[in-house]
Amino acid sequence: MESAGLDLAKATAECQNRAELNALLRDEVESLKAELDRVERQFVSLEQRLQSTETKASAVSAIAEAQLLLERIEAKSTEDLDSLSAAQVRAKIKAADELMKTQNYAASVYYANRAIRLLVQVERRRELAPAMGTARVVSVSRANLREGPGAEYDVVATLDHGTVVVQLQERDDWYRVKAKSGVAGWVHSSVVR
What we know:
Number of domains: 2
Distance between the termini: 15 Å
Strand content: 15-25%
Structural class: alpha+beta
Mean pLDDT: 84
Radius of gyration: 23 Å
Number of helices: 4
Helix content: 55-70%
Strand order of the largest sheet: 1-4-5-6
């Protein structure tokens, strides 16, 4: 009977996890549609913008902002920025820099802002990532949540029987998990199902 209850809790958590992910993905689709509309309007006015007087300072500022955001994301985690996204961002920044050198400041600002938008999307994907893990439920009376994947690591929290967690990573027989409360750490695979 207890096993059935745990299975039901796990299935419910997975269902809820998928529903939350679907809601996040719907929000992302709406955001992308709004972005596409904005870009379309921007292209319509691009010719006029190229004629306008963007300053060298705005181009330098936009390029610097893009480079700083790229560096900040890379410093946080190499997992967040895949090689394709990194290449796209660097290409946009390089194009912006080269356009600035030819004094085409409006186009330079456009490419730098495009790089910034790509980086913002990377950050948004980072927010979505935890919802994409596997739901697990604690199957013992109390499970130790540790700083790392091993019994030698310090316990950061304990999880009660029936606590639902999301598995984010796996290393040997250890799972890196996160509870709804926000607490995260490593548990042995034998204490969850």
